[in-house]
Amino acid sequence: MLNCKQATQMLSEKLDRPLSTKEKLNLGVHTSMCSSCRQFGKQMQELRFISKRYTQGESENKK
C-alpha cells in the first residue's frame, strides 16, 4: 500500500508518463481512501490545464 508521499509523487508522474497497471491499481486504492491525495490529484490536473491554456495564449499573442 502506498503512503501519501508515494501517492503524490505518482500523481505527479502520472501527468508526464503512462503509469503501469500495478501503479494505477495502487494509486487507485490509495486515492479511494485518502481525500487529501485525491484533492492533490485534482489540483495537479487543474494546474496542468491552466498552464496549457496560458502557454497557448502566449503563442497566439506572438503571431
TrEMBL record:
Record's superkingdom?
Answer: Bacteria
Q: Which Pfam families match?
A: zf-HC2 (PF13490)
| Domain Putative zinc-finger span(s) in chain numbering | 4-38
What name does this protein carry? Putative zinc-finger domain-containing protein
Q: Organism, per UniProt? A: Marinomonas profundimaris
